[in-house]
Each structure stands twice: as C-alpha cells, then as structure tokens.
Design goal:
single chain; mainly alpha; about 90 residues
Length: about 90
C-alpha cells in the first residue's frame, strides 16, 4: 500500500508538470480528493499496525474506509481516462 501511494504521488507530480491546462480544473480537484482519501486510508492502516503490531488484523472499519477510498480513486481514474480519449 505504501509503495502504491509513492507511485501514485509520483504519477500525479509528473501529470501536473506535463499538463497544459489549469492547476485547478474539475478533474484535478476530484483527483486530489481521491488522493487525499487514499492517504487517509494509508495512515489509518499504519496507525493500526503501530498500535497492534505488524501481524495483527486490520479492523473492519479501516477495511471499509479503504475500499471506499480506492473505489473513489477508481471512479476518478476512469473519468480521467475517458476525458483524455474524448476531449
């Protein structure tokens, strides 16, 4: 999960550098919210491991929040892909 977050942040930085449009377009703002949701999920998982140890199970609440965050990220990813294809 941590490595995925590192790669995702790197991809976002490269997309920002390569983009020609505004920094605060609708798609980017939605993308930023998805990235923030994933970061919050990651920090919640880290907190669980810090409190309970690396061999512990993650609570169902954290799993549910993680699923919602990644579903939101997937929706924004697909929307961005469609925007690139059609616009």
């Amino acid at each position: 999960m941590t490595l995925g977050m590192i790669f995702d942040v790197t991809a976002i930085i490269l997309m920002i550098k390569g983009a020609k449009d505004l920094v605060f377009s609708l798609h980017r703002l939605l993308g930023y919210t998805a990235e923030i949701a994933m970061a919050v999920s990651l920090f919640m998982v880290w907190r669980e491991f810090a409190r309970k140890g690396l061999n512990s199970t993650i609570s169902s609440k954290v799993i549910r929040i993680t699923k919602i965050a990644y579903l939101w990220w997937l929706v924004i990813y697909i929307a961005g892909s469609l925007m690139v294809i059609w616009l």
